[in-house]
Design a protein that fits this description.
16% strand; 4-stranded antiparallel β-sheet; 2 domains; single chain; alpha+beta; 6 helices; Arc Repressor Mutant, subunit A
Length: 190
C-alpha cells in the first residue's frame, strides 16, 4: 500500500511488467490511476524500430485495476499497432506531480494533448505552447520529472538545433522511439 500524499488516503498499488521491444517496462498504479512507468535502463537496444516485436504483460496480469489495463493496452498498441493509439483511452494518472497545479503539470498535459505521434517539438516551442515562452529550461526540468514516459511523450521534445537532447531512458532509447514513430507514420502515410 502506498500513501498517495494527498489527504493521506491509501492506494492499493499494483505492479505490472510489460515485456516490450525496449525490454521490461514496469508500470505501477491503483484503482484511481497510473502512478509511474519505469523504463528499462539499457545501453544497447534491440533490433531496429522496423520490427516492433511482441509486447506482452509478463508479471502482474491478475487483478489488474482498470488504469493499468488501459495503460498496458495503450503501450502494446504504441509498439505493435501505433495507428490505433488515437482511438484508445489514455489511462487516468494518479501521481502527485500530476495532481497539483504547476507549470510542470501544465507542460506535461500540453505535451500529451498537443504533440502527436511522429511529431517533435523543441523545448522552447513546448514552453510557448504551455504559455510561457521564456521557460525552455523549466520544460527540460518537467521532462526529467515526467512519471509517465511514452504515454506523456517526453521523447518527442528535442533541442532547437534538431539534436535529440537527453532522455531518462537514455539517448539510444530516445532515438529508437523517435525512429519507431517516424517509420510507423511513414507506413501509415503511404
Amino acid at each position: 500500500q502506498v500513501n498517495s500524499k494527498q489527504g493521506g488516503s491509501l492506494c492499493k498499488e499494483k505492479r505490472v511488467v510489460l515485456l516490450s521491444p525496449l525490454g521490461r517496462i514496469e508500470i505501477s498504479g491503483c484503482e484511481t490511476g497510473v502512478h509511474e512507468i519505469k523504463l528499462p535502463k539499457r545501453s544497447l537496444l534491440p533490433a531496429g524500430a522496423e520490427s516492433p516485436g511482441a509486447c506482452e504483460v509478463c508479471e502482474g496480469a491478475e487483478e489488474m485495476p482498470e488504469p493499468l489495463q488501459q495503460c498496458t493496452a495503450w503501450l502494446r498498441a504504441y509498439f505493435c499497432e501505433p495507428a490505433t493509439t488515437g482511438s484508445l483511452p489514455v489511462p487516468a494518472f494518479h501521481h502527485p506531480l500530476l495532481q497539483r497545479d504547476s507549470f510542470t503539470r501544465q507542460v506535461l498535459w500540453t505535451l500529451l494533448n498537443d504533440v502527436k505521434f511522429g511529431e517533435a517539438v523543441s523545448y522552447k516551442q513546448l514552453a510557448d505552447l504551455a504559455g510561457n515562452s521564456r521557460a525552455a529550461r523549466a520544460v527540460g526540468g518537467a521532462m526529467r520529472s515526467n512519471p509517465i514516459p511514452i504515454i506523456i511523450p517526453c521523447h518527442r521534445v528535442i533541442r532547437s538545433s534538431g539534436d535529440t537532447g537527453n532522455y531518462g531512458g537514455g539517448q539510444l532509447m530516445k532515438e529508437w522511439l523517435l525512429s519507431h514513430e517516424k517509420l510507423q507514420k511513414e507506413k501509415l502515410g503511404r
